[in-house]
Design brief:
This is KfrA N-terminal DNA-binding domain-containing protein. Keywords: Coiled coil. It holds the Pfam family KfrA_N. The protein is mainly alpha-helical. The chain has two domains: about 60 residues; about 250 residues, Helix Hairpins, CATH 1.10.287. About 90% of the residues lie in helices and about 0% in strands. It is built from six helices and no strands. Helix 1 packs across helix 2, helix 1 packs across helix 3 and helix 1 crosses helix 4. The relative contact order is 0.09.
Length: about 350
Amino acid sequence: MARAGILYSQVAKAASQLAAAGKAPTIDTVREALGDTGSKSTIAPMLKRWKTEHQEVVAGGDTGLPVDLVVAVKGVYQRLQDDVTRQLEAANEAHEQAQAAVRNQRDAALAAEAQLRQVHTTLVRDHTQIQQTLARCQQDLQANALALTAARTENAGLQQRLTDRAAEAHALNQQLAQTRTQFEHFQEAAVRQRAEERQAFEQRLSRLEQENIAGQRRQDAQQVTLGQQEATLAHQVSELERLRDALTEAHAELHQVRSERNQQAAQLQELTVARVDAERRLDMAQQAVIEAKASAAAAGKQIEMLASQLATAELKANQVERDKVAWIEKILAQRATTGDQ
């Protein structure tokens, strides 16, 4: 049965004695040094406290090696671990920097590509609108040309009709002159024959008067017809003047359309130059993207190289650990062999 009231000083003294004797201070060895007294649950926290306060002594007692040798091995191991840690930190930092640079280059390339795509879309839309405007201008020009041709045709027809009316008026004037000549001839014949054939003359005079009345009526009718024809001619002349004015306005509109067409052609040429420049900038952006991808590939290779170096460092650390364990086992084996002898 465990003895009650075991103190930390007793456990610490027993552990120190065991360490000085080259034995490992464990719960069982300390309990045995105390005369198999005290429970393990009571000894365990006290022994743990003593090991914390006497780490160097514990390390030497656990391995059976001199404390200085254990401290030197720990120092070498710690330096190796520190070197590996620094290499890992440097590799991680370089990897993060490379990734940040690649991300920045990629974001810049994507932004430039998006901007160039927007400029290209705007140029294509403006080019389409200009082509549509140019097509409408060409349609308007064709319509004006057709209207001009129709006006010229109508003008020629009016001129032909005017010529026909002038010929008809000339024919009517000739007929009127002939009628007047005939009337004068009849009067002269009546005067010559008055003395000889008075009765016949009176009869003839009566007939001539009737004929004169009929001729006057015909003349009046011809005068009315001539007045109507002259009014029609004046109207046709006025219509001709109106058509000439319309033709002049059509010429002016045609000149304006041609001027606008030339301006639109100049704008189209400027837009074409801008489009070529945008395509050149797009090619430059694509080249920058290719270079960024190449930089990313190089960064990936560098990361792979750093990962390889890290793996090599880990292998070296593991090898050092194995060498340390082998060396300690070799020393323990030599001590055991020396102890047996």
